Amino acid sequence: MGYDVAPLSRLIEEFERMPSIGRKTAQRLAFYVLGLPRNEAEDFASAILEAHEKIHRCPVCCNLTDGELCNICSNPARDTGTICVVEDSRDVLAIERTHEYMGVYHVLNGLLSPLNGVGPDSLSIKELVRRTGGEVKEVIMATDPTAEGETTAMYVSKLLKPLGVKVTRLAYGVPVGADLEYADEVTLMRALEGRQII
Q1: For residue 11, is it within any domain?
Q2: How far is the C-alpha of 107 from the C-alpha of 110, rounded, in Å?
Q3: Which residues of the chain have pLDDT under 70?
Q4: What pTM did the predictor assign?
Q5: 117: left (phi > 0), else alpha (psi -120 to 50), else beta?
Q6: Measured between alpha carbons, how far is 2 from 63 in angstroms, rounded to an integer?
Q7: CB atoms inside a 10 Å sphere around CB 30
Q8: Nearest to 137, CA basis, from 153, 156, 160, 155
Q9: How many CB atoms neighbour CB 110 within 10 A?
Q10: Does residue 166 belong to any structural domain of this protein?
Q11: Could you report how far apart the first and last alpha carbons of the chain are, in Å?
Q12: Does 72 reside within a domain?
């Protein structure tokens, strides 16, 4: 008969359901939570419940927010003429860390993946098309350079170009600090296509 404590096993299983969390990491997290003082464990559980109750999608950009609009959409200093389209809210955080982009965002909440049953109606593409009238001059497609990301970028581009909106794609290629000899052919091809004058 093996060692089994049902509540601990359930906690481990819940952590293991999280993306990129394997069995050993789930066990470490479960034992960490068990080691918390009761008040800290209650604070942790309360934070999860509060996030579920208060966080929702911004009605304009579909980013996560706890207010009527997200902080970016409600900021009058942001350039509403430029929309950066991303897969999910984590991408917004990544771009915001650069402190370079001053436009607004649109979060698709996924990428087109017909093989996995994810079509245009599963994403917030209709909401993006509705936003692109009037003052929007440029839509930057910042989806991942994967098959799904490329497919999504091309699909959105075909929808928006007839509306007179300039659609651009993030440049990508060789990462800073990388050796050229280890870059694959597609990465090098993209780096050559996106070269700039210095």
Answers
A1: no
A2: 8
A3: 1-3, 174, 178, 180, 196-198
A4: 0.82
A5: left
A6: 45
A7: 20
A8: 160
A9: 15
A10: yes
A11: 69
A12: no
Residue 90 confidence (pLDDT): 93
- Residues 70 and 37 sit within 8 Å (Cβ to Cβ): no
For residue 74, the number of C-alpha atoms closer than 13 Å in the C-beta half-sphere is 11
CA distance 104 to 123: 18
Position of tokens 């970016």? Answer: 72
pLDDT in tens, 142-194: 998 888 998 999 999 999 988 889 999 887 776 777 676 777 777 777 777 77
One-letter amino acid for residue 41 of the chain: A
- The C-alpha atoms of residue 181 and residue 12 are separated, in whole angstroms, by 42
Total domains in the chain come to 1
Q: CB neighbours of 23 closer than 8 A, spacing ≥ 6?
A: 12, 16
Domain membership flag for residue 112: yes
Contacts of 181 (CB under 8 A, 6+ apart): none
CATH code: domain of residue 110: 3.40.1360.10
Backbone angles phi, psi at 48, to 5 degrees: -65, -45
Range of the domain at 114: 79-198
Amino acid (one-letter) located at 66: D
